Amino acid sequence: MNIGEFAELTGLSMKALRLYDEQGLLPPAIVDEWSRHRRYSATQFESALRLKAARSADLPLAEAPQLLHDPETAAAALVVHRARLAAERERQDAALAVLDRLLAGPVKWQTEVRQAERQHWAGVVLPPEVTDDEEANELFAGLWRRLSAVGNAPTGAFWTTIGAAEGSETETEVVCCWPVADLPPADWDDVRRGTIEPGEEMVVRWRFEQDVPVVDGAAHPAVLALLAAVESDGVNVSLGHLRQIGLLEDGAPVGVEVAVRLAP
Question: Closest by alpha carbon to 106, among 226, 10, 240, 200?
């Protein structure tokens, strides 16, 4: 049968059949020497149906050869793929739940203005590959141990802030900071340092048990609400003036306080 007929019977498009031919997955039974027309055999239905089912299941093309030639390995690949699809469905369900919450209306956040005192700080840059809280907490702990070893133990709760990446005018980086009594030694080249000068800052807080719609990959809605509140007051702020400060109870983190300076 010709390629059109075989495509009609198997549900595979002619484009897909040509691709599978190029990949060596499903070459035609016969290719006319002069016209180069492809002819397929009924004995190829089984392979074609496996490939069609794999396409419908979004199985990666790289795993297709196993479906045709190694059923045992293919079964293991399907287990992995099922887990991958389940995780994707879970992610989609979570995103839809967040969207439902967002459509119900914005969360109302309470803001306050307070006077910030002068405060030295020391910080380390959060590497881009660090993606979970446990790794970030280890960075905080490592810096705490290092500061404590030289008699300059942190004097309060940790925070993170966003700054311009060194050597770049467009990229930013997250800095994990501790408040300290004295600036760290000048020869600590891998440690950032600075001083918060006295001035007003606006603050909003949230606790971890609060049920708020957080969009994956976006800043926490409290951060966005705080920046919107500052902007509505006609104040221009830099993200470098924003701090996410850990709220602690009995030494354990229970939430986050976000503060942004209203004036440098």
Answer: 226
Task: Report residues of the chain scoring pLDDT below 50.
Answer: none
Number of other CB atoms surrounding residue 249 within 10 Å: 9
Strand order across the 112-116 sheet: 112-116, 199-207, 252-261, 242-249, 159-164, 172-180, 119-125, 192-196
Q: How would you class 20 by CB atoms within 10 Å of its CB: exposed for 0-12, middle for 13-18, buried for 19 or more? A: buried
Spatial CA neighbour of 118 closest among 199, 238, 182? 199
DSSP string, 112-140: EEEEEPPEEEEEEE--TT--SHHHHHHHH
The continuous run of DSSP H or E covering 225 comes out as helix 221-232
Burial 56-91 (b: 16+ CB within 10 A, else e): eeebeeeebebbbeeeeebeebbeebeeeeeeeeee
Q: What is the pTM of this model?
A: 0.69
Closest by CA to 202, choosing from 257, 136, 137, 129, is: 257
Cross-strand bridge partners of residue 180: 120
Summarize pLDDT for 140-164 with one digit per residue, the tens.
889 999 999 999 999 988 898 886 6
Q: Return the structure tokens found at 126.
A: 């959060």
State the DSSP string of 42-89. Answer: GGGHHHHHHHHHHHHTT--GGGHHHHHH-HHHHHHHHHHHHHHHHHHH
Amino acid identity, position 23: Q
Nearest residue to 161 via CA among 141, 180, 138, 179 = 179
The upper half-sphere exposure of residue 103, i.e. CA atoms within 13 Å in the direction of its Cβ, equals 6
Do residues 14 and 38 lie in contact, with contact meaning Cβ atoms separated by under 8 Å? no
Distance of alpha carbon 16 from alpha carbon 7, whole angstroms:
9
Q: Measuring CA to CA, which residue among 221, 215, 227, 138 is closest to residue 176?
A: 138
